[in-house]
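Box S1 | Example of a co-folding query
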Amino acid sequence: MNDSIAVIELTPTGLRFLDQTRLPGEEVMVATADHRDVLEAIRALRLRGAPLIGITAAYGVTLAARAWCAAHSAPADTAAALTRTQDFLAYLHDVCESFAATRPTAVNLFWALDRMRCLLARPLAPEALTPEALAPESFTPEAFTAALEAEAHAIHDDDAQRCAAIGRHGAALLPRGAGVITHCNSGALATGGEGTAFAVLLEAHRQGRGIHVFADETRPLLQGARLTMWELRRHDIPSTLITDGTAAMLMRAGRVAAAITGADRIAANGDTANKIGTYALAVAARHHGIPFYIAAPLSTVDNRIPTGADIPIEERDPAEITMLAGRRIAPEGVHVYAPAFDVTPAELIAGFVTERGILAPPYGETLAAALS
Ligand code: MRU
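Box S1 (continued) | Returned holo structure for MRU
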C-alpha cells in the first residue's frame, strides 16, 4: 500500500485538504480558495494537531492575500499604489488576528503566524511607506503575496524535516518488542511530515524493532480511535485500540514498556500541554515505573511562558461531550467541563524527543540550549 498521506496542499487555485472529521469512514478532500473556510476548518478540527494548525494558518493567510490581490487591481499612479499597499497590509493584519483567535493552546499556530507577520512588518513602519520605497516591485501586494506563499511552503517543508529528525532520534528509545502507549493523534494528520510521537513509532517499526502500539481512543473526539488507528493500519504497524481508562491496567499487567505523545505547547521549564488525558497517562506511567516521553519540534516550545500554569487551555463546546456520533448521551442541561488539553508537569517526563536529539532534565536548561 502507498503509505504517504495527502493532508494539505496549496495549489495555484486554492487549498486542498483532507477533512479529518470524516475519517476513518470517508477520505474527503475539500477544495477552497476562501480563507474563511480555512478558519472554520481549524475551529471544527477538520485540520488539527499542533504543527498542522500552524501550517494551515500560513496557507490560509496566503489564500486571503491572493484573494485580496485578485479583487483590487493595481492603480496607475503612485499615491493610489501607496494607499493600496497600506489597505492590503491592514487587511492581512486582521486576517492574521482572525487565525490567531481560532485555537489558543497550540503554540505552533502563533509561531507560524509570527513568521508570516514578519514578512509584513517592515513596510508597516510609516517611514517605509513612501512613494519612493513603493517604487521597487518588492513592495506591491502581489510581491508580498508571493513572499507569503513561499513562507507558507517553507513552514510546511520545515516541519516535515523536523518530523523526520524526531523519528530518527526517538526510535532507539523504544526497546525491541516493546508495547508502547500513545494518546491522541500525532502523525501525518497532525503535522507537515510523518508526525512527532507517531514518527518515532513509525521509525521504530521500519527498523524492525517489533513494537506493538496501544492507542488510547482519546475521549471525547476520538482522535486516537479514528485517526491514529487509521494511520497505524495504513503503515501495518501492529496495534491495539484501548479506551483511555485501560492504560493503567495494561501497565500493571507488564504489557507496556514506554509511553510517548506529542505536545501542543511546552513551557520553558518543560511542563507540557497536550490532549486531555495525557496527564493521567503520565501519572500512571510514573506509578508503574514506565518512561513517559514527549516528542515535539522545538517550534512547540514557548520559552516566553515559564511554567505550565501559564499555558492557555482551550475549552470546547459541551456538545462534544454530551453528544456522540450525533446522539445525545447525557441528560439535557447537565453541567459540563470540557478542556481540550491538560498540562503534564515536567517531572513526569522522562525525555523530550526533538529534531535536535533527546533532551533530558533539567529541562529549563536543556530546552533553552536546544533553542539557542
Ligand atoms: O485537538 P487536537 O486534535 O488538535 O489535539 C492534538 C493533540 O493534542 C496532539 O497530541 C498534539 O497536537 C501533538 S501532534 C503533533
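The two ends are 41 Å apart (CA to CA). The pocket of MRU is lined by residues 45, 48-51, 106, 184, 186, 190-191, 196, 223, 261-264, 274-275, 340 (CB under 6 Å).
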